[in-house]
Each structure stands twice: as structure tokens, then as C-alpha cells.
């Protein structure tokens, strides 16, 4: 398996692990009576599973994004400056314009 795929899978699993801990803390601390609601519901296990999966997808995506954005840059590669064409030697110059005065205005 390529290194990049392993890197992304590892960070996705870290995100899912954090999501399990987060949902566990939500249920254990009974935030907004969520733990009581899920505990007393006949479909509480399914609700907890759906909550873990949805929060897990969010945390895994965020963890993978952070991991990719925090990769070190290769300083030997040319920097991306927004284009591939070499800059030309001539810079833009302002052209003189004639300003109309009170006497020269067209009526």
C-alpha cells in the first residue's frame, strides 16, 4: 500500500478514536440529557452507533485535513506562485491622461 494511503488511513483512525472518546464523554457526562435519552430508548444502541459514525466522519476528515496541511514543505521544489509562465521584464506603466478643465469641457 502506498505511503500516502497509509498516512491518510492512520489519521482517519485517529479521528475516529477521538470521536469515540468524545461521544463517550457526551454520554457519560449526560450533556443535554443525551445519555439519559439514549439509555432509556429501546433503540439507544442504534442511536449511539449513528452518533459515533457521524461524529467519527467529521473528526476523521478534520484530522486528515490537519495532517495533510501540517506536512513539511520541500524547500528544494520551486514555490508555487500561481502560474507557469516566466514573468516578463516589462512592468505595467501608467499612461498619461488628459484631464478636462472648466474651460475645455465639452457642452
Automatic annotation (TrEMBL):
Species annotation: Ancylobacter amanitiformis
Transmembrane recorded as keyword: yes
TM annotation in the entry: 12-34, 46-71
Protein name, per record: Uncharacterized protein
Sequence segments annotated as region (Disordered): 78-107
Keywords: Membrane, Transmembrane, Transmembrane helix
Amino acid at each position: 500500500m502506498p505511503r500516502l494511503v497509509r498516512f491518510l488511513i492512520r489519521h482517519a483512525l485517529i479521528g475516529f478514536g477521538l470521536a469515540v472518546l468524545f461521544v463517550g464523554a457526551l454520554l457519560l457526562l449526560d450533556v443535554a440529557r443525551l445519555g439519559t435519552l439514549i439509555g432509556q430508548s429501546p433503540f439507544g444502541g442504534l442511536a449511539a452507533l449513528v452518533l459515533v459514525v457521524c461524529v467519527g466522519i467529521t473528526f476523521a476528515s478534520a484530522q486528515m485535513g490537519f495532517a495533510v496541511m501540517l506536512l513539511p514543505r520541500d524547500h528544494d521544489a520551486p514555490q508555487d506562485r500561481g502560474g507557469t509562465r516566466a514573468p516578463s521584464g516589462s512592468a505595467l506603466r501608467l499612461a498619461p491622461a488628459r484631464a478636462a478643465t472648466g474651460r475645455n469641457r465639452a457642452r
